[in-house]
Amino acid sequence: MLIDIHCHANLYLVLEEIIKDAKNVGVQKIISVGMSFISLERILEISKKFDNIYPALGIHPEEVKMNKNIGNQIDLAIDLIKENKDYICAIGEIGLDHHFIKEKELYTLQKKIFEDMLSLAQELELPVNLHTKGAEKIVFDILPSYKIPNINIHWYSGPEDLLNVGIDRGYYFSITPAINYSSAVKKTVLRVDKEFLLLESDGPVKYSGKIGTPAMIRDVLNTISNIIKINSKDLELQIEENTKKIFPKIF
Hints:
The protein contains ten helices and ten strands. The protein has helices spanning about 15-25, 40-50, 65, 70-85, 105-125, 135-140, 160-170, 185-190, 215-230, 230-245; strands spanning about 1-5, 25-35, 55, 90-95, 130, 150-155, 170-175, 195-200, 205, 210. It has an eight-stranded parallel beta sheet.
């Protein structure tokens, strides 16, 4: 069984086709992660409509730029997440971004929201799905202050020394279709033990101009298999077991 642990399923126009294509290649479960404040209710809605979509709710670091009201809405988001704590499988997508967000005056609010989300994950005893682009060191410095069941670093492409820190701490790393062209992602695959690898589409993000979908993670699996020289079926079983450990509520 393949599981896409990081997808923005609420952003597809015709989700039924996306799910059908995924099932055709063996993708049986999809975690739909939150980004914006307004996306949270939609994610809950589609997860109740489709039995293979599981909600992870959180506020993405780019929301500080996209939504000028997010500072006033964070308490409402936290209340919504708490109300659905038995239904969601993780807190995410959360984190920090100093790559796409250049306005340094937004970093204080971004950090506050991130820490609010980590406190929530600790309180609810839920794993987190993290965005760290351009702020890897700050994120890794913050994480030890919180007791969180498990941590996944989504699409890691940061410094190798921090990658090693994450490996030593037992973090999971989810691999996207960027494996086909990104040297940083390939380096992650080569460094991280197979017991800590996960698969994700991050769809509908585009890869070389093509819209990402959960069905693509079959190719991601095969590419990883070739890189680390492990039979693809054995690797599929291993990653399924990894996913069960970090996101047990979807099984």
